[in-house]
Amino acid sequence: MDFRFSEDQLTLAEGVRDYLTGTHGPEVLRRLDEAGPRDPAIWQGLVDMGLTGLLVPEEHGGLGMGLVEAALIAAECGRACLAEPLVDTAFVGVPWLLSQGQTDGLADVVAGTRKLAPAHAINPWVADGEGEALVSVDPLRQLTARPATVSDDPHLLNLGALMSAAQLVGLADAMLHQAVEYAKIRTQFGQPIGAFQGIKHQLASCSVAIEFAKPVVWRAAAAMQDGLDSAAAHVSHAKLAASDAAMLTAETAIQVHGAMGYTYEVDLHFWMKRSWALCGAWGDRAFHLKRIDEAVLGGSLPIGPEHTFA
Amino acid sequence: MQLQYTPEQQAFRAEVRAWMEAHVPKEPLVTLECREGYDQHVEWERTLASGNWGMVTWPEAYGGRGLDLIQWLIFEEEYFRAGGPNRANQNGIFLLGPTIMEFGTEEQKARFLTPMAKGEVIWAQAWSEPGAGSDMAAIQSKAVRDGDHYVITGQKTWSSRAAFADWGFGIFRTDPDSKRHKGLTFILFDMNSPGITRRPIRQLHGDTGFAELFFDEVRVPVENCLAGEGQGWNVAMATAGFERGLMLRSPGRFQATAKRLVELYRQHADHAAPSAREAVVQAWGAAQAYAYNTYAVAAKIMAGGKIGAEASLNKIFWSELDRSMHRTAMQLLGAAAELKRFDDGRINQWLEGYIFSLSGPIYAGSNEVQRNITAERLLGLPRVGAG
Q: Where in this chain does the record put each Acyl-CoA dehydrogenase/oxidase N-terminal domain (chain B) (predicted)?
C-alpha cells in the first residue's frame, strides 16, 4: 500500500509540463484560434517525446506504460489547454484498441502518422473526426457529427471519462493559478485584491476542491489499471469530483478577474471553455452521479471504513 | 502507486477486527460531554490499553506497538467499522503526544507518554483565552519564573475536556515585555494544582464538555516546559499541524458516518428529496476522497516528508464534510430530527452528531483562519492584518 507516484512517474510528468509550458503558452492558443486549431509542429513535438506511444506495448514500438502514467500526463495536457488530440488518440483510443486485441497500425500511432478519434454513443459528436463539422464553444476543439454506428462499449466510455477527469484537474489547477496571479497584481482600494479575504476565501475553497479531486482521479486510474470490478464506479467518482472542482474554479476565476475576465484579452476563457466541454463529455454529471448512486445505494460496491480500496 | 494491502497488513486488519468485535461496547456510550459519559469513555480508554491498542504508532517503550502509519490507518478503519467510541484522550494521544515525541526530552517522554497511551492520565487543552481565540498570538496569561517554578496567572477558556481531565497543556506568556508570537512558552500542568479553578461551560446542547480555567498563582515546575522557554509558538504550531493534518480526524470516522447515512437514506427513501439522495452519494464520495488523501499523506510522511500548510486543506475538508453529512441526516429524519430519543427509546445520535459537527469548522483553528492560511501560504496571496 503506497499512495504515491514513483520518482520516474513524477519526472515524466514534469518533463511534459516543462515542455508544454515552454512551447504551448497562451500565445499559441491565440494563434491556433486565428490560424486553425491544429498545428503539425506541435503534434510532432508530442510524438518526439514518445507520448503517442506511451501506452503502446514495447513490442509495437511504444513505451508500454499504464493508465496511471497516462492520467498524470493527461492532467498536464489539461494544465496546458493542449489542443492536439493526444489524449483521445494515445490515452483513450490506444488502450481501447488494445482491449479489443487490435494491434494493427499501432506503429503508425507511435510514429504520429495515425490519429484516433474514438466515437461513442454517449457523445453526440466525435472529436477530431471526419464527418460534418460541429461548432463547439471551445474554439480549439474540432468536433464532427457522429457516424451512424458507434460503439457503446463501457470500457471505452470509462477510458474517455477517466482521461477527461484527469484533464479537468489540470485545467482547474491552471485556472486557479491564473486567478491567483491576477489577484496579486490587480490593485483596488490601495491594495492587491488578493489581500481581501473575500477573494482569498473563494480561491482557498477552489484549492480544497481541487486537492481532494486529484487523489480520486489517481485512484480511478489505478482501479482501471488493476482491472478492479469497481473501476467504473471509481471512474464516475473521478469525473464527478473533477468536473465539480473545475466548474467551481472556472466560475471563481472569472469572478476574481472581474470585468477583465469577461474579455477575450485575458487568457482564462480558453481554459474555462475546455472545462465546460469536458464536464459534459464522456458522460455528463447526471450520468456519472447515477452510476455512483447505483454502486453505493444499489449495494454493488462495498462501503464503509474497511472498504477504502474496494 | 500500489493500492493493495500486503498479506501482513491484511493479517493485522484481521487481528484488530477480532479484538474490536470482542471489546467495543454493544450499546453506544453516554456522551463524553458529561460526568457519566466521561467516566465511561475513560473506562474504554483503559480497556483499549489492556489490549495494547492505546496508540499503535508509538514505540513500545512508550506504551505503543511501533507500527507505521498505514497500520495506523488500518487500525482506525477497523476501530470505526466496529463503532468504537470517541477517544476521551484525543487531546493527549493525537495532539500532545506527537508534540512531546518531537520536542520532548527523554525524561519527558518517559514520564508523560506511557500513562497517556494507557489512558491513566487524560489531557485537556488550554489554548484559547477570552481575547485570544482565532488570534491565538494575543494570549495574555502569564507564567513568571520563580526559582525552579513558573507561577501562572490568567484565564483560559473553551478548553476541551477541561471539565474532567487530569492534566492540561497550553501556551503562556513567559516574557512580560513580549508581543504576539514571541515570549510564549508551552507548559504542561496538573489540573488539580492549587490555584486552578475550573468552571465548566454549559454548551448549547446543555452538557459540559469544555471549561473555563482560572489560574491564580499556580506553581508549575520548570521541567514541565516543552522545548524551552520562548519556544511556545513554534511548538503550538506543530501541535496544531498534528491536529489539523493527520491524526485528529482519521478517515474511518467519516466513512463510517457516510455508511450510516446510506443506511438512513434507505429507511427514508420513500419521502426523501432528490437533493438528499445526491447529498448521500456525495457523502460517500467525499469520505472516500478524504481517505485517499490521507493514505497519500501517510505515504509521504513514511517516505520522510512532512505536512505543512496543506493541513489546513484537510481541516476545512473534514469539518465541512462532517457538518454536511449530519445536515443531510437531519433532513432525512424530518420531523423526527428534533427528538433527543426516538419513540423506540434509541438516542438520536444524528442530532448529537449534527450539534457536534457545528463545532468542527470552529475548533482546531476556525475555517476562516484555515482559508487565510491556504490563500497565503499555499497560494502565495499577500498577507494583511495578522502581525
A: 6-120
